Amino acid sequence: MRAWWVREPGPIESQPLAWGERPDPQPGRRELLVSVRTCGVCRTDLHLAEGDLAPRRPNVVPGHEAVGIVSETGDGCARFRRGDRVGVAWLGGTCGSCAYCRRGNENLCLSPVFTGWDRDGGYAEQLTVSEDFAYAIPQQFSDEQAAPLLCSGIIGYRALKRAELPPGGRLGIYGFGGSAHLTAQMARHQGAQVYVMTRSESARELARELGAVFVGDAYDSPPDPLDSAMLFAPVGDLVPVALKALDRGGTLAIAGIHLSDIPPLNYSADLFYERQLRSVTANTRADGEEFWSLAAEIPLAPTTTAYPLAEADRALRDLAGGRITGAAVLRA
């Protein structure tokens, strides 16, 4: 099969990914072999390529927003059959036995497996996935629409829960890429007022189209105190900016897996009056199932830019340069 893999992590301009032939993967017990149709391009893939996330093994294939057709099933499979359409997301496996898994917090598992980091992902013509960690895709979403929902959508949903937005509340969103523009739609569906702060003019225009009541630059102060805020840009300097914009009792959720260093915080100015700062660590499968039900109910409308699979490196360069509005998707 044709695939991309991380040859040598480094700046995306240095071409850290290699493109070529890889052996066809074979499904193990309770695994599915999936013929990939589309795969979303996530900022986590960029962090992996550039070395912000150290690869867990040599020559790993990135990509954790893959949509495809089951072409073969391993022994013991019962949930899916050949010909079914499935989605393959970031969380690819958990131990099931640690204290976190037993209490329902499998996103905090002590020995998790992540697609496109621990095991080969969707920047390829084929991949394998544990059938227990695959998702059925609602019919109303095309392959291209469904791909970014598998991470950008699910993680946005998890982050929105962590932000504890009250009904009808004011939500600030810092950075407005693939995940943020989907989260804004979920928040609006719940009756929230959405305030968007981002550096990209095209992203600001998309925020206006999606009904944001205020749109400004990343470091602008919203005109009203926020009940909750979410940080999608991987910029630690924005943490005190967002905290200062919160009303008393407000919560800031940081939605990314990587963040540059946070500057010193002033307790009185940034955290007092019970403001909260929270991280988001992956998602549980329950989060994923809840998200897909909500996505179909709304229904979510992803804004996508498509690239051929053979141009994944260009898609990542465009992502790094802020030249993508919404989410990028690779077509196999």
| Shape designation | globular
Assess the beta-strand content as a share of residues.
25-35%
**Number of helical elements:** 9
Task: State the major sheet.
Answer: 7 strands, mixed
Give the termini separation. 11 Å
- Pairing-aware structural class of the strands and helices? alpha/beta
Q: Total number of β-strand segments?
A: 17
Task: Determine the fraction of residues in helical runs and give it as a percent range.
Answer: 25-40%
Low-confidence stretches: none
Order of helices and strands: EEEHEEEHEEEHEHEHEEHEHEHEHE
The oligomerization state is single chain
Mean pLDDT: 96
Compute the gyration radius: what is it?
A: 19 Å
Characterise this structure:
Helix 3 packs across helix 4 and helix 3 packs across helix 8. The chain is built from nine helices and 17 strands. It starts with a strand and ends with a strand. The chain is 27% helix and 27% strand. The strands form four sheets. Strands 3, 4, 5, 8, 9, 16 and 17 form a seven-stranded mixed β-sheet that branches. It has helices at residues 43-50, 99-102, 143-162, 178-189, 201-209, 238-245, 267-271, 285-297, 312-320; strands at 2-6, 17-21, 31-41, 66-73, 85-88, 91-93, 113-114, 126-130, 134-136, 170-174, 193-197, 214-216, 226-231, 246-254, 276-279, 304-308, 327-331. With 332 residues, the chain is of the alpha/beta class.
